[in-house]
Amino acid sequence: MSSIAYAWEFGANLGHIGTFLPIARDLRAHGHDVHWMVTHTNQAAKLLDREGFSWLQAPVIGEVIRKIPPQSYADILLRFGYASVDDLLGLLVAWRQLLLFAKPALLLADHAPTAILAARTLDIPVMLFGNGFFAPPQISPLPNMRPWTHVPMETLVQLEQEALASVNFVLRHFAREPLGCLAELFQVAETSLLTFPELDHYAQRSQAAYWGTLPAAVANPPVWSSTARPRVYAYLRANSPHCEAALQTLGNLRKPCLVYCPDIPQAMREKYSSTDLHFADAPVDLNLAAQEADAAVTYGSPAATIAFLLAGKPVLMLPGHLEQFLFALRVEGFGAGLLINPEHAPADLPQKLQRILFEPSFAENARAFAKKYESFNQAQVQAHLVNRIEELAHSATAKGSP
């Protein structure tokens, strides 16, 4: 059997570990050694310890705040160590040590560009494992990530060249061929995107394998305050923009609302709890919630949003950062939801919630999405994805250990 490593470098929240967890269980059941390298240890302690998995802290570096938001994926890299060859070399050495310890036949990279770079220096094959945001398209320079604003081409080129210079410095340090462009970093054994073509952050592309979504980790069934309609399920984060405005709007709806907001302060929870609005104490089964509710309010979580779309239910999204915002734009683009801009005051939030609930076109477009993927089976996808991981690992092992 094989050693398989999972690397998570950028991002937050439970979605990263939770997405891979069902796959990791199956791989372990098949006799493989699964090595976790995760960026947030508190979440690993919550989920992985009780599952009996061992895990290690991923090498990370604090974000360097710039005056303007990220313009491209290269700009993101520059904020997390790639602006300095010394910082990047330190990160790379640390990632290499983790991989040398795990000796994986295959690395599954969940938004882990430096882990991908380390694997390149060790001849370890990589399978990208995540949504489209983690896998920039194969173009140079990497594209503008804020398409609603103009970014000059020379700016995109400059950002790419700055990040590429650091990458090529560390590659030469380990006697590896330099890259011709930054997109080559993501030319890996396989690009597996856990999303649907309509929801790819960079729009549909031909080089990727779209797997859809995987079953969520075990969660509790939803408990509603009454049988009245419409019902709204909300998955929020207290630190996301407009969270409190969303709670106030849901409370004013005077209809059954079930809210899961894991990091909500107790005072805020007590303020907005009512006979109609209840807070869940633990994660809620998203598929059941989507079946039983009429719409959702999310912070742009792909897992929660897609669960409702697959059930033919519209979504109001409150994205908190660029990845979530680009995802929400895709949903809004085919008319199955609306988003609240995090950079604007949420004055239109009540109006948009009313539209989601009562304008027929949103539910119709969500049902069209659900109809298109009505044969989609998460359990089958999980089984096929496990098989594909095993095939790649077996092929790498047959060629010889790195």
- The largest sheet has its strands arranged as 3-2-1-4-5-6-7
Shape: globular
Give the DSSP E fraction (strand runs of 2 or more residues).
5-15%
Estimated structural class: alpha/beta
Low-confidence stretches: none
User: If you average the pLDDT, what whole number results?
Assistant: 91
Question: Number of domains in the coordinates?
Answer: 2
Summarize the structure.
With 402 residues, the chain is of the alpha/beta class. The chain has helices at 15-29, 41-51, 73-82, 85-102, 113-122, 153-173, 243-253, 266-272, 286-292, 302-310, 322-333, 349-358, 360-372, 378-398, and strands spanning 3-8, 33-38, 55-57, 106-110, 126-130, 190-193, 209-210, 232-235, 257-260, 277-279, 295-298, 315-317, 337-339.
Descriptive notes:
Helix 4 packs across helix 6. The two termini are 16 Å apart. The chain has 402 residues and is α/β, with parallel strands linked by helices. Helix 8 links the parallel strand 9 and strand 10. The model has no long low-confidence stretch (mean pLDDT 91).
